[in-house]
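Re: the 344-residue chain
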Amino acid sequence: MKAWHLKHEEWSNEFKVLIESELNQLLEVPVRRGVNLRNETRWKIGGIAEFLIEPSTIGEIQSLVAYFNKNSLPFTFIGATSNILFDSRGISAFLVKIGDRLNSFEVEAQTVTAGAGISVPSLVRRTSELGLAGITHAAGIPGTLGGLVVMNGGTQRKGIGENVNRIWVVDTEGDLTVIEKEDLQFSYRDSILKEKVLAVVTVELSLTSGDRLTLMAEIEEILSERSQKFPQDLPNCGSTFLSDPSMYQLVGPPGRAIEEAGLKGLQKGDAQISELHSNFIVNTGNATDNDVLWLIAKVRREVEKKTGYLMNCEVLHMDQWGNLRPAHEVADQRFVLSQDEIGI
């Protein structure tokens, strides 16, 4: 049944039904077809996903990869979508979501082994309740552990990579392999995993002993501070731009640079640079990926003109075929702004 050489629009409904039937034989939870990503994603942006699959076990992920390879079908892995801008034209690739069905949690002394689908806030709270310290900085990040590891996410200029011992992944051949910390090449908001199509399925963390009450109080303080600083009532993907250490020393964080460039509140379509925090782009209604990408291009050029620094994105963009790229690369490709548009 190798038919991906056909253009996606040439697939017949009968062919899609056949794929759906065969995939469902591999899964505990049925495949979802024709899923509107506006209803599934943190940014509430995206077109129709032809197939969305939520495996319940590592074995199911391995079976899916084997099936896709056998039939030359494109696929990609996603988590809680808290850092992805989806193409508004839709996604033709098979989306495999590593979510809360893969949320195992085991503790031995100060070592925690958890499923990649566990939510970060839940992980932080559960470890803190056990008096295990080291990751409270991530308490307010609305993603999964797997996604956090891929991005080396965190706050307070910390990253989860500091606590990772090793991870287990399913590779593009369907094999379950272990990757040790030294091979993950963690750096600020980055890891080698961003360059690879892998499903992070399990993560081993090394934590330290802490006082339970102190840790829980720290979590509440972080959540309270985030609720005051960051937009909570409109869909967004968190920080849009990366904080460059050299820029931070001379100019400050991205939000300050954007605000000082006079861009706070700037709107394109239904996408807006947040009035509350300028490093957040919010969806005020029916924003498209083009609306967001235009704002990204505008911000990059305007801030560069004023500071000399060209800011890169923390957010990734997924195109129609499931390819992930930093959103600023896609923005630069789609929009070459005129001098009038960037205020020159």
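The two ends are 55 Å apart (CA to CA).
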